[in-house]
Design a protein that fits this description.
Blueprint lengths: L8 E3 L2 H13 L3 E8 L2 E13 L4 E8 L10 E6 L3 E7 L1 E4 L3 E5 L4 E5 L6 E2 L7 E6 L5 E9 L3 E6 L1 H4 L7 E7 L2 E21 L2 E12 L5 H7 L1
Antiparallel strand pairs: 1-9, 2-3, 2-5, 3-4, 4-8, 5-6, 6-9, 7-8, 10-12, 11-12, 11-14, 12-13, 13-16, 14-15, 15-16
């Protein structure tokens, strides 16, 4: 199994990791684990049975059991689908004939199979975005979560989110230091509540996903903001 680590982004966001693992569990997708003991790679197949974020546990129901397994050696978990793949290295906490209990990941290496790759931003490097409803003169501020050639996600406060709704058309006039001569036109596709870390504290924000009316070259914008 060949994996190019350069293609992965690393997430240490516990809520994002939990959401990804819960989705794999809910859909009952098969995962692959492997452990190297005395230079021999042992392949294990299973399905996520329970994601316990409070006790830092991940329970795996074994569908293909290994001949040998060691509680003293690290183990790698890998999942791949058409939409997304992820990888992480962890330790085994408990083991029986049917289940494997491993430690909840501190971080995931995530690869999203996207036609248009996203440029991701993390606190404290999220550029400020100035935007408005196309039918309004009132400007709002948000933080840029990510940007691609076809869309963006914004992190919006509850106070400002009450002015937004799905399918609304908006204009972005500024991203960070970049001011646009002609506003970027976008449509809101979704709005969802998220918990994120800003300036070292947990904050509730609303992630607003938007699609550009006309495809852009996001690399040009990244260099200027």
């Amino acid at each position: 199994m060949q994996i190019n680590n350069d293609q992965f982004r690393i997430s240490s966001n516990k809520e994002e990791i939990f959401s990804i693992l819960e989705e794999v569990k809910k859909m009952a997708f098969e995962i692959t684990l492997w452990q190297t003991i005395r230079e021999v790679k042992n392949i294990i197949k299973g399905k996520i049975n329970n994601v316990d974020i409070n006790n830092d546990n991940l329970s795996i129901f074994l569908t293909i059991k290994p001949n040998v397994i060691s509680l003293n050696e690290p183990i790698l978990l890998y999942y791949k689908s058409q939409k997304q793949s992820f990888l992480y290295k962890t330790i085994i906490k408990r083991l029986n004939e049917t289940y494997l209990i491993i430690k909840f990941p501190l971080e995931l290496r995530i690869f999203e199979n996207r036609e248009h790759p996203r440029h991701l931003f993390k606190d404290p490097n999220n550029p400020v975005v100035l935007f408005k409803d196309k039918k309004s003169t009132k400007y709002l501020n948000a933080l840029l979560g990510d940007i691609s050639d076809v869309g963006v996600s914004l992190l919006v406060t509850k106070k400002d989110c009450v002015h937004l709704q799905t399918l609304m058309m908006i204009d972005i006039t500024d991203i960070g230091k970049k001011k646009f001569e002609a506003p970027l036109e976008l449509q809101i596709l979704y709005i969802k509540s998220v918990n994120i870390t800003l300036e070292g504290f947990k904050r509730q924000r609303y992630r607003v996903g938007l699609k550009f009316k006309n495809k852009i070259n996001s690399c040009d914008i990244i260099h200027d903001i």
